Amino acid sequence: AGKGGKSKRSKSKGSRKKTKKPVSEVDILSPAAMLNAYYISHNAAACLEFRGFNWPDSPKKKGK
Description:
Helix content is about 25%, strand content about 0%. It has about 60 residues and is an all-alpha fold. It comes from Terrapene triunguis. This is Small lysine rich protein 1. InterPro entries: SMKR1.
């Protein structure tokens, strides 16, 4: 069964254009975001840092 060398799927050589989805604004104070921040943050400063509000002149974290 299936001794033929041709596959049933046809491969298209044309390039497909990817359509970019519009970037939606995310509310960082939404209930879902606050619940996520509650579980990942140790304190208020860590919560703000995760959200992109870093302290000025703070030392940069090194990656693991």
